[in-house]
């Protein structure tokens, strides 16, 4: 199985007269795990719904594997979007939901779904409406994994799941992806948890595309420096620091912008540890910057 390329060209989506997305042009390459980030209301769910053909564009177009899914029904079944609300039959038992998935989703692996249901401690005899919030999310995640759609998108699928359940989901996602690569999009506010999973990062801000880049390129846009607080402060006094964390007398500062090799060598010589930039710090910095820029221009 292989994933499909997902492309948006100058995409706009409106709710009535209110635009929720505009001018979105981006390409998500096949067989990769893509992260989709954005503040509340940035347009993530709207974008994913449009990519899954659940909401029609008001401008521009979407191409899945080079074709417009709104004109090619065959493509719709290649795309699976799992939303927080869960696209399940709420008043039918999980077992019946699996029957329905087998009919509706051409690559659905029931055996695999049942194994995951056991692993997550769910009861096949229960109905989704009788599950706790975290259990319902886990059931949605299981459907998304077992659907094995060439384009699989998870929108905040972790909501309500406890730490162990989230870890199980991440581990299973990686194992599945390694065995059956496909195009995966993960939208989440738990940035530090998905950081190591995603190969590209797309950030939406106020309905527009802020960036869509390789994770490695983003990480290269800065560094963390860790050591005694006074040494870190002295070293970073002339640098753009976008985040700090303290643990007792130890401070970690995240510096944005290019720290050249000579600076990094000097930092190490002063006893500082040099590490990669946390995606969360970059996200907060870039979103705040976009917010300030938009405010200045009004
Ligand atoms: N059904 C709807 N009717 C009208 N406006 C909507 C509807 N759904 C979303 N919107 C608006 O569209 C914009 C984008 O919402 P969307 O749900 O896509 O954001 P999001 O990035 O997924 O947010 P969150 O992280 O809070 O889930 C928001 O301004 C929101 O108010």
Notes on the protein architecture:
GO terms for molecular function: ATP binding; ATP hydrolysis activity. The protein has helices spanning 44-51, 73-76, 94-104, 110-119, 133-147, 163-179, 191-194, 215-219, 229-236, 261-269, 279-296; strands at residues 6-15, 18-28, 33-38, 59-64, 79-82, 151-155, 183-187, 200-205, 208-214, 222-228, 241-247, 250-256, 273-275. With 298 residues, the protein is α/β, with parallel strands linked by helices. The chain folds into 2 domains: 6-214, Rossmann fold, CATH 3.40.50.300; 218-296, Alpha-Beta Plaits (2-Layer Sandwich). The strands form 3 sheets. Strands 5-6-7-3-8-9 form a 6-stranded mixed beta sheet, sandwiched between helices. It has a 4-stranded antiparallel beta sheet with strand order 11-12-10-13, with helices on both faces. Helix 6 (163-179) links the parallel strand 6 (151-155) and strand 7 (183-187). Helix 4 packs antiparallel against helix 5 and helix 5 packs parallel to helix 6. The radius of gyration is 21 Å and the shape is globular. The mean pLDDT is 93. Bound molecules: adenosine-5'-triphosphate (ATP). The site of adenosine-5'-triphosphate has 11 residues, from strand 2 and helix 1.
Basic shape: globular
The total of beta strands comes to 13
Q: Which ligands accompany this protein? A: adenosine-5'-triphosphate
Count of discrete alpha- or pi-helical segments spanning 4 or more residues: 11
CATH class of the largest domain: Alpha Beta
GO molecular function, one term: ATP binding
Protein name: ABC-2 type transport system ATP-binding protein
Keywords: ATP-binding, Nucleotide-binding
């Amino acid at each position: 199985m292989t994933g499909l390329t997902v492309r948006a060209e100058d995409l706009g989506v409106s709710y009535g007269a209110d635009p929720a997305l505009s001018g979105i042009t981006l390409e998500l390459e096949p067989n990769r795990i893509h992260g989709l980030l954005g503040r509340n209301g940035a347009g993530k769910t709207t974008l994913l719904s449009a990519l899954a053909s659940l909401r029609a564009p008001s401008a521009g177009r979407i191409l899945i594997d080079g074709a417009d899914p709104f004109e090619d029904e065959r493509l719709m079944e290649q795309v699976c979007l799992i939303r927080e609300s869960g696209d399940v039959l709420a008043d039918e038992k999980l077992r019946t939901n699996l029957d329905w998935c087998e009919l509706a989703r051409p690559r659905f692996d029931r055996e695999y779904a049942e194994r995951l249901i056991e692993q997550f401690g769910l009861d096949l005899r229960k109905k989704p409406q009788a599950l706790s919030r975290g259990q319902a999310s886990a059931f949605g995640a299981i459907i998304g994994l077992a659907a094995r759609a060439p384009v699989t998108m998870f929108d905040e699928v972790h909501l309500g799941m406890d730490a162990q359940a989230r870890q199980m989901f991440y581990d299973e996602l990686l194992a599945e992806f390694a065995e059956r690569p496909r195009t995966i999009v993960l939208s989440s506010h738990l940035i530090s948890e998905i950081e190591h999973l995603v190969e590209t990062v797309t950030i939406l801000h106020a309905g527009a595309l802020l960036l869509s880049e390789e994770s490695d390129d983003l990480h290269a846009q800065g560094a963390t420096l860790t050591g005694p607080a006074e040494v870190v402060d002295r070293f970073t006094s002339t640098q753009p620091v976008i985040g700090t964390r303290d643990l007792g007398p130890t401070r970690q500062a995240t510096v944005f912008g290019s720290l050249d090799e000579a600076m990094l060598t000097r930092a190490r010589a002063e006893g500082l540890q040099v590490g990669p930039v946390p995606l969360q710090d970059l996200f907060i910095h870039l979103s705040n910057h976009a917010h300030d820029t938009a405010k200045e221009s009004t």
